[in-house]
Design brief:
CATH topology of the largest domain: Aspartate Aminotransferase, domain 2
Mean pLDDT: 96
Largest sheet: 7 strands, mixed
CATH superfamily of the largest domain: Type I PLP-dependent aspartate aminotransferase-like (Major domain)
Strand content: 15-25%
Distance between the termini: 15 Å
CATH architecture of the largest domain: 3-Layer(aba) Sandwich
Number of helices: 12
Radius of gyration: 21 Å
CATH class of the largest domain: Alpha Beta
Low-confidence stretches: none
Strand order of the largest sheet: 1-9-8-5-4-2-3
Length: 380
């Protein structure tokens, strides 16, 4: 088995930086020299460029993806006790802000092949108290937004897309029109955490919408509830993207399509090398969305996951479990409505998923080393 020269990372941000170092260094220095650190020209330019990339009327940058979700829920006027439906198989932030605002998180199962929110389960969970649905475009491809939006219209519900893992993904509607992830519902939220497909070098996030009035509220809430300085029309928060991060994101946005293509090349290699093994289930692709592969997540069948992780680690190959505990079984979100066994797909996924390294700098030598190492253990 051929060894690799460079240490393998889940996400190799150093190697990515080295390729764009002159652009990044110049952009950061320009901000420092300008001293326009907060709401400077770089933030406004990034906002405009991301609006153009997404084909959306309004992008409102903020401090992180969790803030984005919270601000959207505040702007939509959700009140304590209102129910918000989301998936149990996701990162905690999605449910965290629902609970933080005194809303009631209503959890549902996901589909086993795609990891996306189960539409039939959403419909069954709707009650007179339901006010919003938060689909999570997990691991890099979109949930079935046509069906979700039809359901939302039928019951007069808001749809807030959590697109932190799927920025840049294209959703093709039943009308044949392509729209970017996060631009289909009433609002979209994203994170620019460094490991994301479009990541800065710190924290950052954004909200997007085509609704002029909602955009006005989002900007106001993110800025202490003020639209004019020292005039506070609503309760707000202090959540902003700083100019240095915006400058970095402007550079990386220009490369985002190339990054997605590189990730797909890695995923295609994994699919070909691992897809015919009965002990490994590779990620399912859907017709309504392309995949930008924030994560490449296998489902293991009859394989000891921890022993496989130990085997890979001994060979210098990292792996991750996204996510080991379902939200409905987390101590902070225990609810008498839910018990172990209620979400069989989510619970099975939490016990069987394993994500392999995927990023823009993986070469074929490294990919062969990773897949050979996986198969060496699985086939023993």
């Amino acid at each position: 088995m051929e060894q690799v020269a460079r240490k393998i990372q889940m996400v190799d941000l150093v190697a990515q930086y080295e390729k764009i170092q002159p652009e990044i260094d110049a952009a950061v220095l320009n901000v420092i020299r300008s001293a326009a650190f907060i709401n400077g020209p770089e933030v406004k330019a990034f906002q405009a460029e991301l609006e153009a990339f997404l084909g959306v009327k309004h992008v409102i940058p903020c401090a992180n993806g969790t803030d984005a979700l919270q601000i959207v829920m505040m702007a939509l006027g959700l009140k304590p006790g209102d129910e918000v439906i989301t998936a149990s198989f996701t990162y905690v932030a999605t449910a965290e802000v629902i609970a933080l605002l005194g809303l009631s998180p209503v959890l549902v199962d996901v589909y086993p092949g795609t990891f996306d929110i189960n539409i039939e389960a959403v419909e069954k969970a709707i009650t007179p108290k339901t006010k919003a649905i938060v689909p999570v475009h997990l691991f890099g491809q979109c949930a079935d937004m046509d069906r979700l939006m039809a359901l939302a219209r039928k019951h007069n519900l808001f749809v807030i897309e959590d697109t932190a893992q799927a920025i840049g993904a294209d959703y093709t509607g039943s009308d044949g029109v392509k729209r970017k992830a996060g631009t289909i519902g009433h609002a979209g939220c994203t994170s620019f955490f460094p490991s994301k497909n479009l990541g800065c070098y710190g924290d950052g996030g954004a909200m997007y919408t085509n609704d002029d009035e909602l955009a006005k509220k989002l900007r106001m809430i993110a800025n202490h509830g003020q639209s004019v300085q020292y005039v506070h029309d609503s309760i707000g928060v202090n959540s902003r993207l700083d100019s240095i991060q915006a400058a970095i994101l402007r550079i990386k946005l220009r490369h985002l399509n190339d990054y997605a293509a590189a990730r797909n090349k890695v995923a295609d290699y994994y699919d070909k090398a691992l897809g015919n093994n009965p002990k490994l289930k590779t990620p399912e692709r859907v017709k309504h969305s392309n995949h930008v592969f924030h994560q490449y997540t296998l489902q293991l069948n009859g394989v000891d996951r921890q022993q496989l992780r130990d085997h890979l680690q001994a060979k210098g190959i990292p792996s991750m479990i996204y996510y080991p505990i379902p939200l409905h079984m987390q101590k902070a979100y225990l609810d008498p409505r839910y018990k172990a066994g209620d979400f069989p797909v989510t619970e099975a996924l939490c016990a069987s998923v394993l994500s392999l390294p995927i990023h823009t700098e993986l070469d074929e030598t490294t990919l062969k080393y990773i897949t050979d190492s996986v198969l060496e253990f699985v086939n023993k």
